[in-house]
Amino acid sequence: MTTEQKVLRLSIAVTVLLAGSGILFGLLSGSFAIVFDGIYSLVDASMTTVTLLVSNLIAASTAGGARRGKLVERFTMGFWHLEPMVLGLNATLLMGAAIYALINALGSLMTGGRDLAFDHAIVYAVVTLLAAAGMAVFATRANRTVRSDFLALDAKAWIMSAALTAALLAAFVFGHLIQGTQLQWMSPYIDPAVLALVCLVVIPIPVGTMRQALADVLLVTPADLKQHVDAVARDIVQRHGFSSFRAYVARVGRGRQIELYFIVPTGWPPRRLEEWDRIRDEVGEAIGGESPDRWLTIVFTSDPEWAE
Predict the structure, then answer these.
(1) pLDDT at site 146
(2) CB 225 within 8 A of CB 249
(3) Residues spanned by CATH 3.30.70.1350 within the chain?
(4) Confidence class of residue 71 from pLDDT cuts 50, 70 and 90?
(5) CATH number for the 4-217 domain, one of 2.60.290, 1.10.287, 1.20.1510, 1.20.1270?
(6) Could you write out the DSSP letters of every residue in the chain?
(7) Nearest by Cα to 84 from 262, 289, 254
(8) Do 55 and 8 form a contact (C-beta atoms < 8 A)?
(9) 224 closest CA partner among 148, 155, 288
(10) d(CA 22, CA 57)
């Protein structure tokens, strides 16, 4: 699987399978922690499906063929803006689900906990741990080639799922071992306690993704890209004798939007369009990163107002 779409499809299929089994085993064992794990997976699967749709749109709009022509007619600015919106919504929903589960776990702890069938819970935890760990390794390796923010988030989600399932497994094994001992009074508190701990770990994890998504939606200028573009533009100004420049840079999902305005001194003799195009090529090569995800606009004007 060498494409973003194929990896996401496999991730969705495995997530839905684990979510269904989680809800079933959770109801059979009486574990709200397992039920939450299943619901959490369903939310993740639904958002991954939306992510896949956006990924397909971006891929189609930057590729060739008749389909691209129809998409470009209606969406001339592309679909990059959808990527941070989906990532931000995904992070928000996952945090919201974890906060709701935390409130329920604390309420259960205050009312005496709940009984749990540890044998069913252990079986679920073992199977889920193996599946999540396998998908985490697979998604991480696949993203070394694809280099996608979507796959990076998906791999992070699988790593998080594997770690949390390992915590559930340890708690369930402990609960099984203390049956018939002096510590058996702790059994009803194991499920809500481990759920509360899991939620406390889960809640902060999507914060970084949410912050980056918000920055992309608000078109916050990436400092490193702006510095690089400014350095290239200053060099072009010096070598070609322009007066100054204005640079506007934004990161929108995987897209990089760059607008460069070069202020040309008034009274210059006219040049052929081919000469201006050669300067544009020179600027584009110096900036680098040429791909369908780079939106580069270069303008030459003698009126600074056109660049403001």
Answers:
(1) 74
(2) yes
(3) 223-307
(4) low
(5) 1.20.1510
(6) --SHHHHHHHHHHHHHHHHHHHHHHHHHHT-HHHHHHHHHHHHHHHHHHHHHHHHHHHHHHTS-SHHHHHHHHH-TT-STTHHHHHHHHHHHHHHHHHHHHHHHHHHHHHTT-----HHHHHHHHHHHHHHHHHHHHHHHHHHHHH--HHHHHHHHHHHHHHHHHHHHHHHHHHHHHTTTSTTGGGHHHHHHHHHHHHHHHHTTTTHHHHHHHHHHHTTPPPHHHHHHHHHHHHHHHHHHT-SEEEEEEEEETTEEEEEEEEEPPTTPPP--HHHHHHHHHHHHHHH---STTEEEEEEEES-GGGG-
(7) 254
(8) yes
(9) 288
(10) 32
Task: Say yes or no: domain 223-307 is CATH 3.20.20.70.
Answer: no
Which token pair is 17? 């399978």
Which own/partner contact pairs does 73-82 have at CB distance under 8 Å and 24+ positions apart?
78/255, 78/295, 79/54, 80/252, 80/253, 80/254, 80/255, 80/257, 80/293, 81/217, 81/252, 81/253, 82/54, 82/57, 82/58, 82/253
Of the candidates 77, 235, 72, the residue with the CA atom closest to the CA atom of residue 260: 235
pTM of the model: 0.68
Distance in angstroms (rounded) separating the CA atoms of residues 48 and 273: 46
Phi, psi of 208 (to 5 degrees): -60, -45
Compute the Cα dihedral for 68, 70, 73, 77 and give only its sign.
Answer: negative
Residue at 69: amino acid letter:
G
Task: Report in angstroms the alpha-carbon separations of 126 from 134, 138, 147.
Answer: 12, 18, 30
- Match 């329920």 to its residue by tokens: 104
| pLDDT (tens digit per residue) in 194-236 | 888 888 887 887 888 888 888 888 888 888 889 999 999 999 9
The mean pLDDT of 27-33, rounded to a whole number, is: 80
